[in-house]
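[Structure tokenization] protein backbone as discrete codes

[Encoding] learned vocabulary of local backbone shapes

[Begin record] amino acids and matching fold tokens:

___
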Amino acid sequence: MTTIYPDGTDAAPILYEDRPNWIKEWEVTGLIQYEDKNNDGRIQYYNDSEAFAPEAQARGWNGNEFSYNRDILVLANPEIANLPGWVVGLIAAGGLAAALSTASGLLLAISSAISHDLIKGRFKPDITDKGELTAARISMAVAIVVATYLGANPPGFAAQVVALAFGIAAASLFPALMMGIFSKRVNNIGAIAGMLTGLAFTLCYIFVYKGWLFIPGTNNLADTPENWVMGISPLSIGAIGAVVNFAVAFVVARATAEPPQEIQELVESVRYPRGAGAAQDH
């Protein structure tokens, strides 16, 4: 705000010609945009809401003229603070390294889960090593295509995407992991039913507001607080999905056969490692 209003918000904003260099450089990327709506040559930057409309009209403003992509904030901050170029490069390199390390780990996990755990473990136990490797490569390629599409058409800025990912994980994986450790009664049928129900519930709620498969323009309702069910944001629905997962898994597990005895003993050994003695008071 101090960049646009150096003399305070009650004073006139800066002229577009006097904008700092970091704005000029980021404008080239298209991640910062300016539109002079009232042709006064100044940058009007404010919350274009109904509450501020009378004040904006009194000042002769016709709407917010300055917009930016929130994903640039981390990289733009060093430039805003007039730090040297090597600091900007260091931050960019750190972000890129973090992204690549995370992406590589997730791709390996996805490919091994599909090729080894799913295909070899469930559908085709006699698959050859070559076939398993081929399946891993294909699944990795599909994951890269999906990730590339979501990267080009993100459902939100970086923090929102992370929140969505953790919400989906909370609604699908977290309850199964917790019940697998602390409950000997939950079986594979209950765990799978809970995971599918929690995942479907969470994704449907997200897609209603964010667009089906995150395709722009396919959302059923506007992603605004007044449209959210009980005020629950799509970014926070994962917690409710986890509760649904727990409930469905518990009910289905109670209605079906108990897990095999060796599975129950495995759960017991995880909770109480063999050879562990009683807790000692020091």
